[in-house]
Design brief:
This protein is mostly helical. Helices cover 84% and strands 0% of the residues. It contains 4 helices and no strands. Keywords: Membrane, Transmembrane, Transmembrane helix.
Length: 130
């Protein structure tokens, strides 16, 4: 199960990287280029939920259960930031939307922590030094 968790974590890291790519593509290109960013947001929300369940079933350390939950919470904050920014019809809207990028960096940082710990745990279990 540790390897399953590690694979899910690698997948989440790739999804988060793709999120940044498609957000930038949409910001500097056509609106159609932004659609994958929106769609991957659902994956960024659901995949860590699955990871938390896998970590719990596999009896992984608690931090590998709650850190994916932090990603879920931060992804929820992403939605709130986007909704609030869109409702503001003055110059503060884009400034609030800037928080969406800052929060995205926080998500990437937490995913990086989980990735490091998941890969180290998978190596230790397989007999390789961490």
């Amino acid at each position: 199960m540790r390897r399953v968790f590690a694979v899910l974590t690698v997948l989440l890291a790739l999804v988060v990287a793709a999120e940044f790519f498609f957000a930038a593509s949409g910001a500097f290109g056509s609106g159609a280029l932004y659609r994958p960013h929106h769609a991957l947001g659902y994956v960024t929300f659901l995949l860590p939920l699955v990871m938390a369940v896998v970590a719990g079933v596999a009896k992984l350390p608690r931090r590998l259960i709650w850190l994916p939950a932090v990603v879920v919470a931060l992804t929820g904050v992403q939605v709130v930031i986007a909704k609030v920014a869109r409702t503001l019809d003055d110059p503060t809207g884009p400034l609030v939307f800037g928080l969406h990028a800052v929060n995205g960096m926080a998500i990437a940082a937490v995913v990086g922590l989980v990735l490091r710990q998941a890969l180290a745990g998978a190596r230790v279990r397989s007999g390789q030094p961490a």
